[in-house]
Amino acid sequence: MLVATPGLVAHGVEVFRHEFADARHLAIGVDGTDGAVPAGAAELGLEADLSVVLTATAVDPAGDVDAEVRVLSDDGDWGQLLELRRTDDHPAADEDYQRRRVDEVRRLAESGAGVYLGAFADGRLVSTLGVVSDGSGTVRYQHVQTHPDHRRRGLAGHLVAVAARMAKQRWQVDRFVIVADPDGPAINLYRSLGFHDTEHQVQLARPPAPPVTT
């Protein structure tokens, strides 16, 4: 995460290449709150992705759902999380990345710093999210995802509310944080649960070039 100052983009590219010399992609987080895209991004072929940071001091209850809701706990649950990740616009080329991400969030949950919840329909994980505490009263939601065949059934909203109750039981919480696409369908759901727009976040990225074939 780099502060938006003159020369940020060129410096960010240099730092990324030094730290991730073998990476075919490029990604830089901008440390700012107003959503301004630093000068020079387009010239270097970087695309800007704008997100809205929403916060709440309490999360409103959501309606009941026709699903079993519980904490992800065993190998089967975490394996289903990886399966679910594959259904949500993640190409096969990202398989290793997705597996490492699932391993990472599992370690986080097992350390006690986070909780991952799932909604199960007929024994299958169809919606999930995580909440992670920073230890100072702030809890952030992560990886809110619902299988395409199970959307618009209230699952995500229900999980957001259940996770808030669970977080308050486990940690001293005075602020909930969630990040959303300003043009996506989820942002209005979060607002309906008591979240309010607080900041804007910018990520700069250049996708990997396609492999060279002969």
Report on the architecture of this protein.
- With 214 residues, the chain is an alpha+beta fold.
- The chain has two domains: 2-52 and 201-206, no CATH class; 59-193, 3-Layer(aba) Sandwich (Aminopeptidase).
- 30% of the residues lie in helices and 31% in strands.
- The protein has helices spanning 8-19, 75-87, 95-111, 155-170, 186-192, and strands at residues 2-3, 26-31, 47-56, 68-71, 114-121, 124-133, 138-146, 175-180, 196-206.
- The protein has a nine-stranded mixed β-sheet with strand order 1-2-9-3-8-7-6-5-4, with helices on both faces.
- A hairpin with a 4-residue loop joins strand 6 and strand 7.
- The radius of gyration is 19 Å and the shape is globular.
- The termini are far apart.
Task: Give me some keywords for this one.
single chain, 214 residues, alpha+beta, Aminopeptidase, 9-stranded mixed β-sheet, 5 helices, 30% helix, 31% strand
Individual helix count: 5
Helix/strand-derived category reads alpha+beta
The CATH H-level homologous superfamily of the largest domain? Gcn5-related N-acetyltransferase (GNAT)
* Portion of residues within helices: 25-40%
Low-confidence segments, ≥5 residues, pLDDT <50?
A: none
Give, in order, the helices and strands.
EHEEEHHEEEHEHE
Number of domains: 2
Strand order of the largest sheet: 1-2-9-3-8-7-6-5-4
Number of strands: 9
* Cα-based radius of gyration, to the nearest Å: 19 Å
Quote the CATH topology of the largest domain. Answer: Aminopeptidase
Largest sheet: 9 strands, mixed
**End-to-end distance, in Å?**
38 Å
CATH class of the largest domain: Alpha Beta
Mean pLDDT: 87
User: Would you identify the CATH architecture of the largest domain?
Assistant: 3-Layer(aba) Sandwich
Inertia-based shape: globular
**Beta-strand percent range:** 25-35%
